[in-house]
Amino acid sequence: MLTSLINELYGGEETSIPVDGSPEQAAGRLAHSTPRRAALTFMDKVVGSVTVDRVVLRFRHRSARNAFAPIFRGRFETLHGKTHLTGRFGLRRSTKVFMTVWFGLIALFSIAGVVVAVERSSAKGLPPWTGILVGGIFACGAIAFGFAGFVFLRRAKRLSKADVDHVVEHVKSSFTKNAV
Description:
Blueprint: H1 2-10, E1 13-18, H2 23-33, E2 45-50, E3 55-60, E4 71-79, E5 82-90, H3 93-123, H4 128-159, H5 162-177
Antiparallel strand pairs: 1-5, 2-3, 3-4, 4-5
């Protein structure tokens, strides 16, 4: 469960998209067809910043903003004599920080609940296992919040799975439109 949580939060979908031209030409073409911001528009579009060493792209919806939507972070590289846009789709940094704090507080709350219950039970002269039992029951509520956060994270990421295809299609169409 912990490894799947870590993969959901910090993992990403690796992507390598072959493009035409040198890395500088490819960055120029993609930058030309990608606006930095969506401004006031009623259309869904891919926005972001593009340089040779740093490409950040996201799909902006006109109706709502999903903090769990994937963001592409990558760069242009030459692999086997051909230029590729390589990178990874992952969560926003602010979302990663928020969810890390969320799960960290839940773990802290659970551990503190057990420790406090053991201390109180031993202060009353009861055996330590009663404190562990009471603290464990208390910690189940926090663990339920953690599980709910994990389910919410997975569901929100699934709802925005199509955004990956939109970003990849935008990159590919940037090179087919401008082809000579």
